[in-house]
Specification:
Layout lengths: L1 H4 L3 E4 L14 E4 L11 H6 L4 E6 L19 H5 L4 H4 L24 H13 L4 E9 L11 E9 L4 H4 L4 H8 L27 H17 L1 H8 L27 H8 L2
Parallel strand pairs: 3-5
Antiparallel strand pairs: 1-2, 4-5
């Protein structure tokens, strides 16, 4: 509650245009980084009809592992809504109402398309890999955000979470600090707290924490390089190898896990 008291609130009026004519009433907004509306940057991209998008979810929400999202059995909306970053699930109609926030207006994809994405993320998480999902999604019309529907976006999601494959290749002293949990220098890794991660500081991280987190993300990008090439360079992945299907025909990579030499090169930078 003390943290919320630090966030300024102001009454603002909307900027109107021919596309969004007035008059429109003013409303109270939290003044900050925009997280009360959207943390992803996806919505402005869809406004511009960007056909291929990479979305990094740097979040303190862990990928849900309670239910198996890769079965034919639908999982209830409440559990789905708690199984990934809120600024992912709200795009599928699971934005919860919070006073001062506006997440209820963020749906741009069909609800039925969420569970297959969570299946992808969960599969990587179970295998100890950095979690990604690449899907072609139908964009729905969203008048609140001025997004035109009826087209398809290729969306690559990189969801921050633990990767045992990555951690097992770290130096022994680094692994020891991670294993120490709250008592170690990497408490909460990789979901570092946004506020008071370190007792002597309000919002800053140590150099070691920044290096470890950035190394994990870079490692994930390298391991899933074929996904990023497909989205950013238009180079299709090689799908000739049979992929596991779990009810949703979800594609899961069978990529070779690189040895520790590449990871050592990353960590030395």
């Amino acid at each position: 509650m003390a943290g919320k008291a630090l966030i300024p609130v102001a009454t603002l009026w909307p900027v109107t245009s021919k596309k969004f004519p007035g008059p429109k009433g003013a409303a109270k907004f939290k003044i900050g980084d925009g997280g009360h509306m959207d943390n992803s940057g996806l919505l402005p991209a869809l406004q511009r009809k960007v056909p291929r998008v990479v979305m990094f979810l740097d979040t303190d929400v862990k990928i849900g592992m309670k239910s198996d999202f890769c079965t034919y059995t639908p999982v209830d909306a409440v559990e789905l809504g708690k199984s990934a970053a809120w600024y992912l699930v709200d795009k599928f109609g699971l934005g919860s109402h919070v006073e001062g926030s506006f997440l209820m207006h963020n749906q741009v994809f069909r609800f039925r398309d969420l569970q297959p994405i969570l299946c992808d993320l969960q599969t990587h998480r179970r295998a100890g890999r950095p979690a990604v999902s690449l899907r072609d999604l139908e964009v729905l019309k969203n008048s609140w955000w001025g997004i035109e529907g009826g087209w398809t976006v290729k969306l690559l999601v990189y969801h921050l979470d633990k990767s045992k494959v990555f951690e097992n290749q770290l130096p022994a002293d680094t692994q020891k600090e991670i294993a120490a949990g709250k008592e170690g220098m990497f408490a909460n890794f990789p979901q570092f707290s946004m506020v008071q991660q370190n007792p002597q500081s309000l919002i800053s991280y140590t150099g070691a924490q920044v290096n470890l987190l950035s190394s994990l993300v870079e490692y994930g990008v390298r391991q899933h390089a074929s996904y990023f090439r497909e989205v950013l360079a238009g180079i299709p992945r090689n799908l000739a190898e049979q992929q596991p299907s779990a009810g949703f025909e979800a594609l899961h990579p069978r990529e070779e896990i690189e040895g520790s030499k590449e990871l050592s090169d990353i960590l030395r930078r």
